[in-house]
Write a structure and sequence with these properties.
The protein has about 350 residues and is an alpha/beta fold. The chain folds into two domains: about 180 residues, Glycogen Phosphorylase B (Rossmann fold, 3-Layer(aba) Sandwich); about 130 residues, 3-Layer(aba) Sandwich (Rossmann fold), CATH 3.40.50.2000. The chain has twelve helices and 14 strands. A seven-stranded parallel β-sheet has the order 3-2-1-6-7-8-9, with helices on both faces. It has a five-stranded parallel β-sheet with strand order 12-11-10-13-14, sandwiched between helices. The protein has a two-stranded antiparallel ribbon with strand order 4-5. Strand 7, helix 5 and strand 8 form a beta-alpha-beta unit. It is globular. The two termini are about 15 Å apart. The relative contact order is 0.14.
Length: about 350
């Protein structure tokens, strides 16, 4: 029997990274993670007990633009149905006190059928991938999603704001480090002004790496470090370091002088928490990334003026923020378990 069975969406690495931040405040509880692909590898490397059982559909992205959203939604629906069967078996085996889901709605459906307490962690309250006639299908999916949300004991949103109903806004959820910035720069051998390009857990951010490599920064006395993730196996040459897949991106962000990244919420929050100047380029037509980027003053079109943005941001002062979202989320989970 586990205290918490934690179902974490394997689409990207952001869900798993923030979930690891929450669990760091729940170390006395017996927790089993359920996810898949590189999210499972990240959690395993971070020392957590994890079942690698999910295989989600991948976004189709060409030159930084999301393609055929309706097809992806259809594939996601089929994946969701498969996940319900997987969740049912795991919940029966683990017999948890509470189900925590980071945007894994299949686990919530099974939890509600078995009258188990459930907690949802999410960035969004509805999706907006499609428009026109295709949006009819997505609207029905959103209706289903809202019905599932209503049955949750608590919905945790990693953003600032006012609570309402069963929604608790705890502020950004970020990982902590025990090292100073100077110690991390020494650890990573960041000896010059250092720019880190991070594109997450898939190959959809390849366009951003390619655009950065065409800027004038490459020919200057600045160190360019690529965090390409696990799926991009590229040799960028002698003068550019590719770290590939890392499980401590938050520390690399802290050590860097500038972050260039896709507009995933976890990377944005960690960059702001550590005060590192940043440039966020969203996947075009990906509503969530476009919303995230807009909130930071960026859009997809900024990829065409990276050169000027880099030089401007590289000289920007650091402005760290004190976020406490991970601890607040952990306290909410404790209260649900103790009921």
């Amino acid at each position: 029997m586990t205290d918490i069975t934690f179902f974490s969406s394997p689409i990207g690495l952001g869900h798993a990274t923030r979930d690891s931040a929450i669990i760091s405040h729940l170390q006395k509880l017996n927790t089993k993670f359920v996810t898949g692909n590189y999210a499972a590898e990240f959690l395993r490397q971070s020392g957590f007990d994890v079942d690698d059982v999910y295989n989600p559909p991948q976004f189709i992205v060409k030159n930084g633009k999301l393609q055929n959203s309706l097809m992806w939604l259809w594939r996601y629906y089929k994946y969701y149905k498969d996940c319900k069967n997987i969740c049912s078996q795991i919940i029966k085996k683990e017999n948890p006190q509470v189900i925590v889901s980071d945007e894994d709605f299949a686990s919530l459906v099974i939890a509600h059928k078995q009258n188990l307490p459930s907690i949802l962690i999410t960035d969004i309250l509805e999706t907006r991938f499609t428009n026109g006639f295709s949006s009819i299908i997505e609207k029905k999916m959103n209706q289903t999603m809202r019905a599932i949300m209503k049955k949750c004991e608590v919905i945790i949103l990693p953003e600032e704001g006012t609570d309402q109903g069963n929604i608790r806004r705890v502020g950004p959820i970020v990982r902590e480090t025990n090292f100073s910035r100077e110690e991390l720069r020494k650890k990573f051998s960041f000896n010059k002004k250092t720019i880190v390009v991070s594109v997450g857990g898939t190959d959809i951010g390849k366009f951003l790496i390619e655009k950065t490599l065409k800027t004038s920064i490459v020919n200057n006395d600045v160190e360019l470090v690529i965090v390409s993730g696990p799926s991009l196996k590229i040799d960028y040459g002698k003068n550019i370091r590719n770290l590939g897949f890392v499980n401590n991106l938050h520390e690399i962000i802290f050590a860097a002088d500038l972050i260039i990244s896709l507009a995933g919420k976890s990377t944005i929050d960690e960059s702001k928490a550590y005060g590192t100047p940043s440039i966020f380029i969203p996947i075009k037509n990906h509503f969530e990334q476009e919303d995230n980027a807009k909130g930071e003053g960026f859009s997809f079109e900024d990829v065409n003026r990276l050169d000027s943005l880099i030089w401007k941001k590289l000289n920007e002062k650091r402005n760290p923020q004190n976020y406490n979202g991970a601890k607040k989320a952990a306290e909410i989970i404790k209260k649900v378990i103790s009921k």
